[in-house]
């Protein structure tokens, strides 16, 4: 077996930088910025509807950060709606797509709403090519 065959991609659960219980908690309406590598997340946490704005690249190295921040919102504030704004995201890979699909699934199972604001460029193209454009809920 050569080096390339011995390398496997970690599961999304393996790339979390912090467990949910160790992540910061927000006061209602407070804005927080989280940076991880090429990804910046601007979070406005409110009990009725929380918004996460994504900037840069959502990929294997930082998808766990988005996953963690979504779970913290779900568990600490339990908002009725979580919106992820993809309009400023320049790149997404399959790990990033998996984080969005997982959040959508949790929303359906948990009885809360999960919506996306439409991406542009490469991110839009990947969502179209994968068929996720038809399966995820876009608010605009």
Architecture overview:
By secondary structure, this protein is an alpha/beta fold. It is about 35% helix and about 30% strand. The protein has a single domain (about 5-135), classed as Transcription Regulator spoIIAA. The protein has helices at about 5, 65-75, 95-110, 120-130, 130-135; strands at about 30-35, 40-45, 50-60, 80-90, 115. It has a five-stranded mixed β-sheet with strand order 1-2-3-4-5. Strand 4, helix 3 and strand 5 form a beta-alpha-beta unit. The longest helix has 17 residues, at about 95-110.
The domain count comes to 1
Share of residues in strands: 25-35%
- Do you know the CATH topology? Transcription Regulator spoIIAA
Report the major sheet.
Answer: 5 strands, mixed
Write down the secondary-structure element order: HEEEHEHEHH
Classified in CATH, the superfamily is: STAS domain
Low-confidence stretches: 1-27
Characteristics of this structure?
35% helix, disordered N terminus, globular, 28% strand, 5 helices, Transcription Regulator spoIIAA, five-stranded mixed beta sheet, 140 residues, alpha/beta
Short structural summary:
The chain contains 5 helices and 5 strands, in the order αβββαβαβαα. The protein has helices at 3-6, 63-76, 94-110, 121-130, 132-135, and strands at residues 31-36, 39-44, 49-58, 81-92, 113-117. The chain has a 5-stranded mixed β-sheet with strand order 1-2-3-4-5.
SSE diagram, text form:
Blueprint: H1 3-6, E1 31-36, E2 39-44, E3 49-58, H2 63-76, E4 81-92, H3 94-110, E5 113-117, H4 121-130, H5 132-135
Helix pairs in contact: 2-3
């Amino acid at each position: 077996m050569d080096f390339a065959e011995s390398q496997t991609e970690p599961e999304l659960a393996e790339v979390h930088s912090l467990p949910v219980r160790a992540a910061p908690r927000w006061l209602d309406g407070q804005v927080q910025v989280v940076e991880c590598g090429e990804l910046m997340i601007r979070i406005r946490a409110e009990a009725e509807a929380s918004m996460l704005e994504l900037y840069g690249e959502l990929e294997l190295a930082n998808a766990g950060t988005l996953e963690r921040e979504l779970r913290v919102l779900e568990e600490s504030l339990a908002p009725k709606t979580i919106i992820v704004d993809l309009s400023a995201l320049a790149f997404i890979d399959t790990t990033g797509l998996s984080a969005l699909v997982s959040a959508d699934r949790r929303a359906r199972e948990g009885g809360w709403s999960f919506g996306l604001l439409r991406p542009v460029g490469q991110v839009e193209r990947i969502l179209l090519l994968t068929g996720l454009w038809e399966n995820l809920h876009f608010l605009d």
